[in-house]
Amino acid sequence: MNQTKDEQLLNMVENILALNTAMRFASILDLKGNIIEGIMKDRKTSLESQKQQEKFCKDAAKARKMREAYDKKLGKVRYVHTERENVTQITVYIKKYTIFITMEPELSVNKKLQIVTKIKKMSTHL
């Protein structure tokens, strides 16, 4: 049975959250920064209000646009890794979407890179 696009995106977000117990939030954004699909992991509370989260996602879309101005000379951005005191934020750019995730900051950089690699492999069909 073929899945609808919405079902594919929901499954993708669920699979991303299942990659590691340190995952907090996973979302798929359109190119304007609207959250198409997003899930906060069970037993985790958001560190931002919904309004702040929506603004951050809009800002992530703007940042993607700004970074694309440098693609010709520097190459395309593969992902963005932001390390904060309370949370790690990772943004992965794919063709028509942006995948935005948050996780607990205690994971090693190598573990985080493994997660990014898995997300990129999972999202090749989008």
TrEMBL record:
InterPro entries: DUF6659
Domain of life: Archaea
Pfam families: DUF6659
Stated name of the protein: Roadblock/LC7 domain-containing protein
Phylogenetic classification of the source organism: Archaea, Nitrososphaerota, Marine Group I
